[in-house]
Design goal:
The complex is a heterodimer of chains A (about 450) and B (about 90). Chain A contains 16 helices and 16 strands. With about 450 residues, chain A is an alpha/beta fold. Chain A has a 7-stranded mixed beta sheet with strand order 12-11-10-13-14-16-15, with helices on both faces. The radius of gyration of chain A is 24 Å and the shape is globular. Helices cover about 55% and strands about 0% of the residues of chain B. Chain B is rod-shaped. Classes of the chains: A alpha/beta (about 450), B mainly alpha (about 90). Chains A and B meet through helix 4, helix 6 and helix 7 of A and helix 2 of B.
Chain lengths: ~450, ~90
């Protein structure tokens, strides 16, 4: 039984992993709420509506989970992901999911004890609350204990991304407990004040927080709790819903014209490339595929259609937003997790002891990694030598489906237009030399445009 | 009179009381006070809505012109009764 490194804050329970199965130990402080919610059919209701991750009770005596009174077994999410990697609309849907659950719970005498962004995960189909113990009995007439957390984890990042710049979602990497409200209001344009809901939940909230904090520092504050009726709390939830619903990210129209329109090679090569990818996926039948530089997910879809769980990673938030939007609208067959990430600076391990949030590498290995029309960008735009790229890939995947784009290709020439010949070694020879150290060639196919596709097997066991 | 009592109750409910939250999460003093203010606003808006509807009822009875809303007065404060109670 391995304790989950991110599960230690709430004394009600703790998450463990053993043999690929997730267990949740429930200790004395959480048992009453758990039993009550079970008796009142709260979990059954939320699980039935696909809002909450399923669970089944197992005997805690048979598990090495300390002095747990109850132990639950959960299905495993194929890959955990984080808000600094999510498309804007995924974070927005996660916020709305919290509010949906609150609206389900409040009339039944329950509520969410926290509103933590890390408690929501996307399984390639749907978003779900993965923390069963977030649900607790509502303290009558008490304000929502997680209101501050909801504003920091959802409203503030979404407002900053929508009103200022979507790239500011990367601030999550520094602020794991959500965007500080005083910082968020500085990042918003002045016009955001005119939105009454943003004014109330962010500007006024930040100001009241600062005032209360300074009193607490001076030991002037007494513990105070305001009473809030159920009706007023539902009003607050609906006000937050309107605030969130009003926020949108509209990527530049150029990206949304569609990848197929801006590609530089012709349809015949695309067909040959797709056929090669299809045959590789069909033959290998990989469980997990990582598609690096996945763009709007065209090749991710090929693998997803054949049953793989695909993680489609791209640098451009507009591309991942486009893919997520299509997934949400049911236009994509199969399971894909779109993530925004700069592959020259992939997600690191973060949080306490650098272990709470996994780095990309720790979430692998993949059975198959696509690096299609990618490595020339890493070499020329990020100045990473081919051998370093090969080493990194060898730590991430068992097999690699990689495209080599020659120096004569228009895309490479475009990258070098202001660089001349003063760049890192880049040729088929340098490619093979770099990758042969870590991989063995299993398959090779040249396309008519001079590009080559390779299937490589990792020389070491992952 | 019923409404006057309702409003008075709300004002009383909004009064600060010493009480400790039973939560592992710090709800934040400023956040709790703000929720109290928002709660007050919500309730005030509902109460005003009720009186406004009554005023429109009178207008309807006197002039025959119907300005009353047929749907919910305020989306933020719709009836919280569970729609499909099991």
């Amino acid at each position: 039984m391995r304790p989950n490194p991110a599960s230690f804050r709430d004394p009600s329970g703790r998450v463990f992993e053993s043999g690929g199965t997730i267990y949740r130990a429930i200790y004395a402080p959480g048992v009453e709420d758990y039993r009550a919610a079970t008796g009142d059919g709260i979990y059954e209701r939320l699980i039935g509506k696909d809002l909450l991750i399923a669970h089944a009770e197992v005997d805690p005596a048979e598990m090495s989970v300390g002095d747990a009174l109850v132990c639950l077994e959960h299905p495993k999410i194929p890959m955990v992901s984080y808000p600094w990697e999510w498309p804007f609309s995924l974070l927005k849907d996660a916020a709305l999911l919290h509010l949906d659950i609150m609206e389900e719970l409040l009339p039944r005498g329950y509520w969410l004890r926290d509103a933590n962004v890390f408690n929501i995960q996307f399984d390639g189909h749907r978003l779900k609350l993965i923390d069963t113990l977030s649900i607790g009995r509502r303290d009558a007439n008490r304000p929502w204990v997680a209101y501050k957390q909801f504003c920091s984890h959802f409203l503030a990042p979404l407002a900053v991304a929508a009103k200022s710049d979507v790239r500011l979602l990367a601030l999550w990497r520094s602020y794991l407990d959500g965007f500080p409200l005083d910082l968020a209001v500085k990042l918003l344009p002045g016009s955001a004040r005119l939105n009454p809901r943003l004014f109330m939940h962010l500007y006024l909230h930040a100001s009241m927080q600062q005032s209360a904090d300074s009193k607490e520092r001076l030991h002037e504050a007494k513990p105070k709790v305001v009473r809030v009726s159920d009706t007023a709390l539902l009003g607050l939830i609906r006000s937050l819903r309107k605030a969130i619903s009003g926020l949108a990210y509209r990527p530049s129209s150029e990206i949304w014209r569609g990848y197929t329109e801006i590609r530089t090679y012709d349809a015949e090569d695309v067909t040959a490339k797709s056929a090669f990818i299809n045959s590789v996926v069909e033959e290998m039948d990989p469980g997990v595929v990582w598609d690096f530089g996945g763009n709007t997910g065209e090749f991710s879809e090929l693998a997803a259609r054949r049953g793989a769980f695909v993680v489609s990673v791209d640098f451009d938030p507009a591309c991942t937003e486009f893919l997520y939007t299509r997934l949400r609208q049911g236009q994509v067959e199969g399971r894909i997790l779109p993530l925004t990430m700069d592959l020259s600076n992939p997600s690191p391990g973060l949080g306490f002891n650098q272990g709470e949030r996994y780095g990309l590498k720790e979430r692998g290995p993949a059975d198959l990694l696509f690096a299609l029309a990618l490595i020339h960008h890493l070499v020329f735009s990020a100045s990473i030598p081919l051998e370093n790229v090969a080493l990194w890939f060898s730590q991430l995947t068992r097999r690699l489906l990689i495209e080599f784009v020659p120096e004569t290709d228009p895309m490479v020439k475009k990258l070098l237009v202001n660089r001349g010949d003063d760049h890192l070694p880049y040729s088929m020879e340098a490619f093979k030399q770099g990758f042969n150290r870590y991989f063995s060639i299993e398959k090779e196919q040249q396309l008519q445009n001079g590009r080559s596709l390779f299937v490589l097997r990792n020389n070491s066991d992952l | 009179m019923r409404h006057l009592i309702f409003v008075t109750k709300i004002v009383l409910l909004m009064a600060f009381v010493t009480n400790h939250a039973h939560a592992y999460l710090d709800p934040g003093t400023g956040s709790m006070i703000l929720q109290g203010l928002i709660a007050g606003l919500m309730v005030a808006a509902t109460t005003m809505g009720i009186y406004w509807q009554k005023f429109l009822d009178i207008i309807y009875r006197v002039t025959g012109k119907d300005f009353r809303k047929t749907a919910g007065q305020d989306e933020d404060l719709k009836d919280e009764t569970p729609k499909d109670e099991t």
